[in-house]
TrEMBL record:
<feature type="transmembrane region" description="Helical">
    <location>
        <begin position="6"/>
        <end position="28"/>
    </location>
</feature>
<keyword id="KW-0408">Iron</keyword>
<dbReference type="GO" id="GO:0016705">
    <property type="term" value="F:oxidoreductase activity, acting on paired donors, with incorporation or reduction of molecular oxygen"/>
</dbReference>
<dbReference type="InterPro" id="IPR001128">
    <property type="entry name" value="Cyt_P450"/>
</dbReference>
<keyword id="KW-0812">Transmembrane</keyword>
<comment type="similarity">
    <text>Belongs to the cytochrome P450 family.</text>
</comment>
<keyword id="KW-0560">Oxidoreductase</keyword>
<keyword id="KW-1133">Transmembrane helix</keyword>
<keyword id="KW-0503">Monooxygenase</keyword>
<protein>
    <submittedName>
        <fullName>Cytochrome P450</fullName>
    </submittedName>
</protein>
<dbReference type="GO" id="GO:0020037">
    <property type="term" value="F:heme binding"/>
</dbReference>
<dbReference type="InterPro" id="IPR002403">
    <property type="entry name" value="Cyt_P450_E_grp-IV"/>
</dbReference>
<dbReference type="GO" id="GO:0005506">
    <property type="term" value="F:iron ion binding"/>
</dbReference>
<keyword id="KW-0349">Heme</keyword>
<feature type="binding site" description="axial binding residue">
    <location>
        <position position="450"/>
    </location>
    <ligand>
        <name>heme</name>
    </ligand>
</feature>
<dbReference type="GO" id="GO:0004497">
    <property type="term" value="F:monooxygenase activity"/>
</dbReference>
<dbReference type="InterPro" id="IPR036396">
    <property type="entry name" value="Cyt_P450_sf"/>
</dbReference>
Length: 508
């Protein structure tokens, strides 16, 4: 047997063995279903792959047809796993029972950032910092947030006396969001550092791309997908982590020295970096030699994902909605003008931003319709099984996903024409974008609702407010719609060039 024939034999043997392993794994998964009163498993035509192909290529049709045939709660066999989908009646049961349904464990099934940012308590501590610092003290740093957004807009969009085409708006918005986010996380000393900003942008964009990698290896075991998907992030983060530590280390040393020398007279900066330095388990005895730099850097990496990746996506979608829905432009501009006059063109206060009620409703509608089809997967961690209020039972370890389309398409919850974009839908209900409600699942719900929603919403509003006042924006000869596509349940990113031009006296 020559080398080529032998090589082909080995390749064929590997492929046959791999397929055999998948078949055996699938058989044991399906035959091992518990004898509970489980939700109906939707019919599928193809063995092994189950609903996976339909889930990837036409998830909307799959979910709508399954909902109609099997009711509000049903299960799918996707990527080698049984996944239960719950609709509008049961979604909040999942969100409120955090002792039963764990969002963090569900999220890690698809995107295990804990394999990269390795500290076990990191996510929990960061959530506490977000609640206590970002949300609790938001009024104190609104001026800095606004100042940095204006600076970033001037830097990356600038004066557009002549029409300026931005071919990749998503990247430009990432550049803009990086400056205020860096200021909040690492402070004034580092937020303008080019290396730091590049690290923030690169990590954010890399994580965003991981959402679109289908978990094919989960047919064998979710652990294989988890190990595979974080490979590029591990390599990328190791380099960015070194850059971040090299720049924050002298800042930390200076702050600790100032605190030692000045004691109570020292005024600590308001940023997340300082939150870490105030923790005696991270910094021992104010000694720069006893600082857990790895923990701080991993915490910063986690915050980049939490505060920048999702905000960039939300801001980009809202800007495209603003460009596409020209009928709202003039009314939103008039609101922005009025608020600008009330503060005499000075920096906006927290109350000024709160007065942007029309823009707030516009942003909330944009966020509502960008949630995708299903998502916010939680893992059941309750003993051996859990019984829903509707009587269905699921075993411990089962993934449960929320049916966004069931909530978003419901006329009783949303009002008339729920699938259409109506900017003032939430204004008429007196429902601000940060409010958690049964008809709005973007930020989750219950105790584990997104604590950073106040920052995200106010960043988006401030950015759009400045754009409305300064520019006219249109597409670069391309249409955005009429219907946005999906990759599986996730909306595909829009990639249409935008033309910015300084606003003229004659309005739209």
């Amino acid at each position: 047997m020559n080398e080529i024939t032998l090589g082909s034999f080995y390749i064929q043997s590997f492929i046959i063995g791999f397929i055999g392993l998948i078949l055996v794994t699938v058989f044991f998964k399906l035959s091992g279903r518990t004898k509970l009163n489980e939700p109906p498993l939707a019919y599928y035509r193809f063995p092994i792959i189950g609903h996976t192909w339909s889930y990837l290529t036409d998830c909307e049709k799959l979910i709508l047809e399954s909902r109609k045939k099997y009711g509000e709660t049903f299960s799918l066999y996707v990527f080698g796993q049984i996944q239960t989908v719950v609709g509008k009646e049961t979604a909040h049961e999942v969100l409120k029972k955090d002792q039963v349904f764990n969002f963090r464990e569900g999220y890690r099934t698809f995107l295990p950032l804990n394999f990269v940012f390795r500290q076990d308590m990191l996510a929990e501590n960061n959530a506490k910092i977000t609640r206590d610092y970002i949300s609790g003290k938001f009024k104190h740093f609104i001026n800095e947030l606004q100042k940095n957004i204006i600076k970033a807009i001037d830097l990356y969009i600038g004066e557009c006396v002549e029409p300026k085409i931005i071919r990749e708006p998503r990247k430009t918005i990432s550049d803009i969001i990086a400056i205020p986010v860096a200021n909040i996380i690492v402070g004034e000393e580092c937020c303008n550092n080019e290396d730091i900003l590049e690290a923030f942008k690169n990590v954010s964009l890399l994580i965003a791309k991981l959402f679109y990698i289908p978990p094919i290896l989960s047919f064998i075991h979710p652990w294989l997908h988890q190990q595979f998907i974080v490979i590029p992030l591990r390599f990328g983060w190791s380099q960015h982590k070194k850059v971040i530590i090299s720049h924050i280390k002298p800042v930390i040393e200076k702050r600790l020295d100032n605190k030692k020398r000045l004691g109570d007279a020292w005024v600590a900066p308001l940023d997340i970096l300082q939150c870490y330095l105030d923790d005696p388990e991270i910094v021992i005895d104010l000694d720069p030699n006893n600082v857990n730099y790895d923990y701080i850097a991993d915490g910063i990496g986690h915050f980049i994902f939490a505060t920048m990746t999702n905000t960039t996506i939300g801001t980009t979608n809202a800007l495209y909605d603003l460009v596409e829905k020209k009928q709202y432009w003039q009314e939103l501009y008039q609101e922005a003008q009025e608020i600008n006059k009330q503060c005499n063109g000075n920096e906006l206060t927290f109350n000024d931003i709160a007065k942007m009620v029309k823009l707030d409703s516009f942003v909330k509608e944009s966020l509502r319709l960008a949630t995708g089809i299903v998502g916010l997967s939680h893992k059941c961690i309750f003993k051996s099984y859990y019984t829903f209020a509707n009587g269905y039972q699921i075993p411990s370890g089962r993934l449960v996903s929320l049916n966004f389309s069931d909530t978003n398409n419901d006329e009783e919850l949303q009002g008339q024409n729920p699938t259409e974009f109506y900017a003032y839908r939430h204004l008429e209900r007196d429902s601000p974008a940060t409010k958690l409600e049964r008809n709005f699942l973007t930020f989750g719900g219950g105790k584990r609702a997104c604590p950073g929603r106040f920052l995200a919403v106010n960043e988006i509003k401030t950015f759009l407010h400045k754009v409305l006042l300064k520019y006219n924006v249109r597409t670069d000869n391309d249409e955005i719609g009429p219907k946005r596509g999906y990759l599986g349940p996730i909306p595909k990113p829009i990639n249409v060039g935008l033309v910015f031009e300084n606003r003229k006296e004659i309005e739209i």
